[in-house]
Amino acid sequence: MEDMENWLAKANVLIEALPYIQRFHGKTIVVKYGGSAMVDHDLKKNVIRDVALLKLVGFRPIIVHGGGKEITKWMKKVDIESEFYKGLRITDKPSMEIVEMVLNKINKGLVSMMEKVGVRAVGISGKDGSVLKVDKKLVGDKDIGYVGEIKEVNTELLNTLLDNDFVPVICPIGSDDGFYSYNINADDAACAIAAAVGAAKLAFLTDVEGVYADPLDKSTLISELSVKEAEELLGSGNIGGGMLPKIHNCVDAIKSGVSRVHILDGRIEHCLLLEFFTNRGIGTAIIGDEEERYYEKNV
Amino acid sequence: MEDMENWLAKANVLIEALPYIQRFHGKTIVVKYGGSAMVDHDLKKNVIRDVALLKLVGFRPIIVHGGGKEITKWMKKVDIESEFYKGLRITDKPSMEIVEMVLNKINKGLVSMMEKVGVRAVGISGKDGSVLKVDKKLVGDKDIGYVGEIKEVNTELLNTLLDNDFVPVICPIGSDDGFYSYNINADDAACAIAAAVGAAKLAFLTDVEGVYADPLDKSTLISELSVKEAEELLGSGNIGGGMLPKIHNCVDAIKSGVSRVHILDGRIEHCLLLEFFTNRGIGTAIIGDEEERYYEKNV
Amino acid sequence: MEDMENWLAKANVLIEALPYIQRFHGKTIVVKYGGSAMVDHDLKKNVIRDVALLKLVGFRPIIVHGGGKEITKWMKKVDIESEFYKGLRITDKPSMEIVEMVLNKINKGLVSMMEKVGVRAVGISGKDGSVLKVDKKLVGDKDIGYVGEIKEVNTELLNTLLDNDFVPVICPIGSDDGFYSYNINADDAACAIAAAVGAAKLAFLTDVEGVYADPLDKSTLISELSVKEAEELLGSGNIGGGMLPKIHNCVDAIKSGVSRVHILDGRIEHCLLLEFFTNRGIGTAIIGDEEERYYEKNV
Amino acid sequence: MEDMENWLAKANVLIEALPYIQRFHGKTIVVKYGGSAMVDHDLKKNVIRDVALLKLVGFRPIIVHGGGKEITKWMKKVDIESEFYKGLRITDKPSMEIVEMVLNKINKGLVSMMEKVGVRAVGISGKDGSVLKVDKKLVGDKDIGYVGEIKEVNTELLNTLLDNDFVPVICPIGSDDGFYSYNINADDAACAIAAAVGAAKLAFLTDVEGVYADPLDKSTLISELSVKEAEELLGSGNIGGGMLPKIHNCVDAIKSGVSRVHILDGRIEHCLLLEFFTNRGIGTAIIGDEEERYYEKNV
Amino acid sequence: MEDMENWLAKANVLIEALPYIQRFHGKTIVVKYGGSAMVDHDLKKNVIRDVALLKLVGFRPIIVHGGGKEITKWMKKVDIESEFYKGLRITDKPSMEIVEMVLNKINKGLVSMMEKVGVRAVGISGKDGSVLKVDKKLVGDKDIGYVGEIKEVNTELLNTLLDNDFVPVICPIGSDDGFYSYNINADDAACAIAAAVGAAKLAFLTDVEGVYADPLDKSTLISELSVKEAEELLGSGNIGGGMLPKIHNCVDAIKSGVSRVHILDGRIEHCLLLEFFTNRGIGTAIIGDEEERYYEKNV
Amino acid sequence: MEDMENWLAKANVLIEALPYIQRFHGKTIVVKYGGSAMVDHDLKKNVIRDVALLKLVGFRPIIVHGGGKEITKWMKKVDIESEFYKGLRITDKPSMEIVEMVLNKINKGLVSMMEKVGVRAVGISGKDGSVLKVDKKLVGDKDIGYVGEIKEVNTELLNTLLDNDFVPVICPIGSDDGFYSYNINADDAACAIAAAVGAAKLAFLTDVEGVYADPLDKSTLISELSVKEAEELLGSGNIGGGMLPKIHNCVDAIKSGVSRVHILDGRIEHCLLLEFFTNRGIGTAIIGDEEERYYEKNV
């Protein structure tokens, strides 16, 4: 009988997911995959299975991933020193070659993991079907090489794949008008793609719990931020290093038509499922100013 | 933290459902809805939400329902005495009128419950689109009135509804060549429809635990029966009253191309979800002789 | 030779229908079916065959029907007293149950008659596919129970059926936001549906000859009324009881985009065919102010 | 009141047509148009309107026409003497030029008449879309010039036009493998086309009443002939001149899959409507041996 | 080895065509076919094969043709004197009959030539599918008979044919509201059709080299003219006889949305290919004022 | 005038291509890209533009490529020694990683080149959409690591891309049932893919002139070989090293339904165009025994 109660509890979990499944049925969602969730083997398997579930219950997921640590590792292997300028990797031709090889390796690895759990996936870069067209990124006078800024997202290939039931797995490489390859910031790529395909949700898997009102006080984690509130926070000077551009990205994405953007803690197992299928607010959601709020602040 | 473990458990339930969702994605399944699950208000709500979930994760459910007790209640209300012959209701014209009114009432009630949980449903009888064509049932020399035997299932309306994302909710009334209305056994209707649409699964919600090898010994519940084993059991004389025609029906359905037929205990909450999304064998499954077995016998 | 002349006359009737068939080919038309035409067996058969013909020559008919007398008959059968307030049936829960059962009975009966003449039909209420969403009707302070006012018509199911060659037969029951059932005035339902599907024509089968300029003088039957003229007539105080809301309905329908609304005398055999396929003006047509007139006034 | 009876009679004519409309709805029918019905202005207008009606009530008509008398008239105009061998026009290059010009003139004239009554039509010869491919007809040793025997019907263009709601109007000219133009017997063309498109009916408009058991006795007109009976009649020696090849054609058409072939008297007004929409057997029908018979012999 | 160089040269020609093929892929182009290219047998064969190639590499060509000299020849044959008024043929009923017969003869001849090179073609006049609707052309008080001015182009038939991979071959005959046939200037027809289908290019095959800045000086051939320049030229008084209306036509076509109009010298072999697939400017192009220029003036 | 002759010659080259374009219009063709044509920059650009032209004139090309020399270069860069066993690279995990990175690098490079000439391309490996499923290759008792033998080609992704106008560019990596990556011989991959998609043609770009009857005598190059002749040649002992498996592959491909397989000399500029668009036989064609022969043997 104990056993039966257990099963019943399981059934109830499925039933609880019902309204969440309905809300996003047929909608396109973009998952920016990065951080610890890409390194830890178990977390990785979980992310893949979570995305598979999203696909199977009728969502149209797109994965955009980076490859930071792996790139540095391979740079060393082939004796190229990694140089940075204002936080951006200076990417000369030999570096770009390594960047592209490593990102494609990660890309096809993710595809295999998706296929293994029975979901059809296709690994592309922004060069395929000219999905990501870039301009060379300018940082004052400094030439930082093949680092690109997205100027156009061509959604034809993405829609072809989504409409035919494939999950696009995208690595952030684009080409300029001369069809040279450029490295793109993965967060930027995820945002631009989410905006271009009119995603209902964009979720960043990060290595932080979310956005804090006061970064020094972990108890001030914010569950939900309107664009207006986010912009105030950006102006407050309270937002530090890595989070700053991410929040800027989130705000841009919302303004380009994405309904909700989530900063999730990728170190939490199944954080995607928790976010998509339960009413537990994990991490921080940035939403349009008129968007209905789901969560009360946790403070 | 306790809280987090709880959430994680929930996520794992969803993940466990993954292979089951994949197996039946896009497949048509027929649920014969009857017994206690149609009377008890909570069970009823559960069945509806279970079917909604099946629909949302990509299955194509069809509901076929009966209305036994409700019919008898209304017969009394309008002072018609219920007469039976060999277990079949003798259905003269006035009785048939009541039968049809009551079944349609139940039918549209189920539709409203489906719509309430956000699933689009359409309530039809076998007269709509001539879905169920019958001959008058002959029981020796005895005229038992408007009781029909299905001779043809016209799937056009069913496919139109399924292909356009509606859940057909069907009450077992058909018409003969003169387009008179006939009462049909709901189990028969479910079987004929499952066979005609090429259902992957047919599930009977009943008021028993399943099939017993020895009906007097509750510990002999059988989890899985091949057609061959089912036919041996039918021959053994060990199968009693109501279960006999049901097993015959199951065997017929399998032979007409349905992959798996399940006799479920509708008194168990969410028995449909347990059956479809977990590896817990509840009730009894009848399967083709070459079909792969999922469960070990419980004995 | 006489015989041949006879046949020739028949051929000429068909040829005369040609321009009328062309005018409405592929157009959706709504027939509000009620009054004597629903009671008299021969008239009933004629209406059904007329609608079948409309379907076959390329129109897309929708039938909306009521059930007044039959409801009262069944109320008596189960000992519920019919109470009215300002002409509206006070509909408590037990009454609503009977209303729904009787309307569905009539509904499926019409479906069978359509199928019998070879036209595919589906009987639905406004609860199926949430076709009719209502608010509770307010009549001053008086609570008249489950009587609804249409607030939204969901055309998805209607279009699915029409596009797949089925004739929708609709009984005027809708559901509110809590998915409770409500009785709706059939004329209102026909109007709202005609407006929502963009019908080219809406025809009311009634028990009157049409609209009279002077109700006391049968020689003042009006063949055609522009919306402006209809509104003047409504203001004149010359229009009596049952006709008043019907003309209001007609005017609303025209304003919502229906091209022509007809008040036909359902007691005339084949009045639908006469209206659709000949240049004989029977009954009264309400038309947009700029609509071309077909008939001269009969006065 | 008299007036009303008159209208009622008209309605009944339409209702009588109902089963005939149903039987051929969506079916392709071929009308071989020729004889007096092509010369007399009123008959011509009637044929056109009859075909328009067939189209509007859901049939898919194809017209195949000849041009006998008109060709001879133009031959004279340009001083070419018409020569015949065994009933076939000897068609040298200059003759063929005239034949083609005259047939196209008639062809486009029929198209205009169809368009005038509101039906979309396209005039083609067998050269367009290579609909009719021929071999040179051999008559013993005699070279009779550009007279062709059909070896292949290419239905692509026909289906494109039918599927897009155009009525194909076809003149019997084909091309050989060298793409030279050839004159084809119009009856042969109609038969070959009817067989190739799988027509449900093929109707010949002729200048005779039909087939007589005894050609000398007008009272022996035959209403219906099975293929077997037709072949017996052909063997009997009782069938004279022009009728012989026509009956051969009919039998061939039935054997190639056409359901019914009709030899109609094109001199009777609206003979097509009488044939398609009433139970009056005019002319003679050749039907498959197992086809159900509609008419009793008139004898 | 010499041989190999030769083949390589050939491959390079194909490769040079690449950007031109890309530019017009899937675009509709109209070729007005007339002049010497319709008389000389070899030029004729070349035009047909050129159009076939355009079709095969993914363009959607439409041919519009005239028939000037052939008409005059046949007029004589049947002893009708050709009369002209202000350059327009006075077209009484008998003349119109000849005009139509001759144009249809040419029309079907071109179809056969297209079919011979393996391209599916359909020969139509503006009467088919009511493609060209006209008003009677008025020239002051003078009645010049059945000469029409286009008032409407119905593109349904054209699109049906193009979408189903047929090349429409069109002769310039239209019908008025009474469905009488009218002769239309072929240049006008080509322009109106190009504008109606939104052609990317309209090419006139003529018997001149192109437009000259000074008609007396052959060295002043103009390669490219903007609409503005063309209008200045028209105002200059330097443009003579036949060229004047043609340039007016070109300007009108551009203003109606055609991107580029070309006046080509049909006496040059494969002038269509040279124009479409190479960067050699032959003849004169009229282009929109903001259109990019391809050629330098040849002067 | 000289100039004009030159242009005319160009036009004639295009016209000569006409029948070749027609023959393969809409057909799928597979190009195995390898050897010198992948190393020499000019040859590379030519191959890309040739494939672009094939795409634009209506063929559906698929590119399959290898990466031999580049892999060896990168192995050295990361200090992995290349080991071979019976001509097969022994591929341990670290080697496989390099193989995959290099092949993907080449793959995406080809995609960029295709996109640069205006053709939409997508670079995939056999892991994407599980296009290539493999078993571990067994070479007697020797474990040669991640070297795979194709057991199944899943064409869904390929057809999705082809049907949506993308050129698939495929590198020969597949996954086994455990979804580990395996290196596949590129010739094998090209053959299996050509067979699976029902290619009309499979062309190998190689570094040899073709097949010689006597490898020592360059004058014995064979233009065309039936399967039967190819098998005799294989039996003759006259075929050496690298050519042996290639001919086996060709024969297998033909037997699996590919119509023609070509061994081309990739060192000849535009060899693909010469093969596809001219009647010059370059290299050796293997064809089905009943296939029509195009070339005479060169001997």
UniProtKB/TrEMBL annotation, chains A, B, C, D, E, F:
Residues spanning the signal sequence: none
Annotated site residues (Transition state stabilizer) in this chain: 32, 246
This protein's pathway: Amino-acid biosynthesis; L-arginine biosynthesis; N(2)-acetyl-L-ornithine from L-glutamate: step 2/4
Keyword rRNA processing recorded: no
Domain of life of the native organism: Bacteria
A GO MF term: ATP binding
Cellular component, GO annotation: cytoplasm
Stretches assigned to the Aspartate/glutamate/uridylate kinase domain: 27-265
E.C. no: 2.7.2.8
Keyword Methyltransferase: no
Main localisation: cytoplasm
Subcellular compartments: Cytoplasm
Keyword terms, alphabetized: Amino-acid biosynthesis, Arginine biosynthesis, ATP-binding, Cytoplasm, Kinase, Nucleotide-binding, Transferase
Cited function: Catalyzes the ATP-dependent phosphorylation of N-acetyl-L-glutamate.
Family membership noted in the UniProt record: Belongs to the acetylglutamate kinase family. ArgB subfamily.
Name of this chain's protein: Acetylglutamate kinase
Organism: Murimonas intestini
Source lineage: Bacteria, Bacillati, Bacillota, Clostridia, Lachnospirales
Gene: argB
